[in-house]
Amino acid sequence: MRFIGNKENLVEKIYQKMIERNISGNSFFDFFAGTTNVGRFFKKKNFQVFSSDLLYFSYVLQKAYIANNQELNFEELLKGIDFKTQSLFSTPLQKIVDFLNQIPDKQGFIYENYTPAGNRMYYSEENGLRIDAIRLQIEDWKNTDLITENEYFVLLACLIETVPFYANVAGIYAAFQKKWDPRAVKKLILRPIEFVVNDKENFVCNVDSVSLINTVETDIFYLDPPYNQRQYAPNYHLMETIAKYDNPEIKGITGLRANYENEKSKFCNATTALQELKKVAEKGKYKTLILSYNNEGIMPETEILLLFGKIGTVELVEFDYLRFKSNNNGESKNKKHIKEQLYILRK
Ligand SMILES: C[S@@+](CC[C@H](N)C(=O)[O-])C[C@H]1O[C@@H](n2cnc3c(N)ncnc32)[C@H](O)[C@@H]1O
Question: Is 256 found in the same domain as 148?
Answer without folding.
Answer: yes
